[in-house]
Structure formats: structure tokens, C-alpha cells
Amino acid sequence: MAGYAEIAEDYRSKIQRGELNPGDRMPTLREVMETWDVSMATASRAYKELQAQGLTTASSGAGTVVARAGSPTISARVQAHAATGRALDADESSAILEVGTVGADETVASRLGVAPGTPVHVRRRLVSRGGVPVHLSASYYLPFVIEATPELTELVSTGGSRELAAERLGSPQSRVLEEVTSRLATDPEKESLGLTGASVIVTQVVRTVYLADGRIVEVAVRVVGGTTVLRWASSL
After folding, report:
1. Beta partners for 230?
2. What pTM, to 2 d.p., does this model score?
3. What is the model's pLDDT at position 227?
4. Which of 18-22, 110-114, 221-225, 230-234 has the least mean pLDDT?
5. d(C-alpha 101, C-alpha 119), whole Å
6. CA 235 to chain CA centroid, nearest Å
7. Residue 171 in contact with residue 148, Cβ under 8 Å?
8. How far apart are CA 206 and CA 111, in angstroms?
9. What is the DSSP letter of 38?
10. Is the dihedral of CA 142, 164, 83, 80 positive or negative?
């Protein structure tokens, strides 16, 4: 007999693969009980797990539905890559806009532990969902990461840059600090994300990813439209 975790994982995978889309009605608890041959308590616990992960939500008159698509956190990306070998959702695509070396600004430098202006490698990309731009992201790497992972200097998507770097560096990803602020969009950001208006608010997430040995593998700055949902699900 299946346990609640197995049931929740099955539906989570279907949502990530695009078999279940935002707004789709989830099976009723009675249907889950019949499909999986489990008790009401097990079915309910599986659905509570999905809701706790931000994957589903209660909808008046429709029961449980798949939650509106947002901008997943790194935890969700790491879990997806581990399960499927792909960090992006089924309907997402990533276009690399720029790779190269830049002087670290104050935001990036302070998190990498270097002086402002220090040369760092950058990869800028635009992630779209269903062909619609979702977020801009710029990932910054210190030289030791690039030495171990020269693929990051190429103008192509690796499908899992941090995972590849962590593997080459011999230490798994351990923890991430994500810092969220709101600000006015720049003109290039408005153009890339298809935002209109003279004063457009965007949400900026600065992400610092640590390896288990304490080294910083990546600092990334992600920008999304102010109405985009940012969804966290953390163990406490």
C-alpha cells in the first residue's frame, strides 16, 4: 500500500512535468483513495504535503487545484534536477543572453567576499514559460568555479550549471541565502520582460549558494515582475 509521501511525490512530478497545469482540478480525496487504495487519512496527508510545498491550493467551488505558476526557488530547482535531470519545468525554456567577465558591483562583491570591481564571470539568461518571459537572471562565479567548469563560459544552457560545478568541485550544494527586495525596473529589464509603464515595480532576489565545504559556488540576481508569485517551502 502506498504511503502519503509516495502519493504526494507522484502528483508533484506530474505538476513539474506539465501533466497537471495551473488551475487544473486535482482528483478528489475520494478519487485518490480509490486510485491508490489508501485511507482518507493517507490521502488527506498527501494533499496537505502538496499544499505545504506551494504546489496546490484550495479553490472555492473547485476543490483542490494546481497553484498558479510562480517563480520557483532554488530548492525547487535543485529537487527537480535531482528527480528529472532538468532544473526547469516542462514548459520553461532558458535563453543565454550573455557570458563574459565583469567587475563585481557592490551587491555581488559583498556576497562573494571580494572587493568591488573584482573580475568575476557572469552568465545572463532569460527564462520563459510557455514562450512568455518569466524572469531575468544573472549568475556570478569566482575564477575557481570557472576553472573547474569551463562549460560556463559557453553561450549555451548547461541545464544545471550549479549542479555541474558542484560535481566538478567535489562538494554538494548545502544551503542558500535568498534576499528579496522591490525596486523600479530598468529600461532593459522592462524590454526583456515585456513590462510596460513609466514606473514599473520588479522584485529582485539575490541568491548566494554555498557548497557543503563552505565555498560559495554562485551568487545570482533574479528579477521578476512585481505581480509574479515568489513561493517558498522550507523545513523548520
Report:
1. 71
2. 0.72
3. 79
4. 230-234
5. 6
6. 17
7. no
8. 9
9. -
10. positive
The alpha carbon torsion through 223, 21, 97, 81 (nearest 10 deg) reads: 90
Instruction: Give the Cβ contact number of residue 170 at 10 Å.
Output: 10
HSE toward the beta carbon, residue 39, CA cutoff 13 A: 4
Segment 116-123 mean pLDDT: 98
CA atoms within 13 A on the CB side of 124: 12
Residue 85 Rama label (left phi>0; alpha psi -120 to 50; beta): left
CA atoms within 13 A on the CB side of 30: 1
Give the angle 89-70-27 at the CA atoms, nearest 5°.
Answer: 75
Grid cell digits, residue 214 = 563552505
Cell (9 digits) for 26: 486535482
> What is the number of residues in the chain?
236
Cα–Cα distances in angstroms (integers) from residue 81 to residues 36, 38, 97, 137, 164, in the given order: 26, 29, 22, 18, 11
Kindly state the DSSP code that residue 25 receives in the 8-state scheme.
B
Does residue 31 carry a pLDDT above 80?
yes
Q: CB–CB of 207/222 below 8 Å?
A: yes
Q: CA-CA distance, 76 to 72, in Å (whole number)?
A: 6
Residue 67 confidence (pLDDT):
83
Cα end-to-end span (Å), the chain: 29
Burial status of residue 2 (CB atoms within 10 A of its CB: 0-12, 13-18, 19 or more): middle
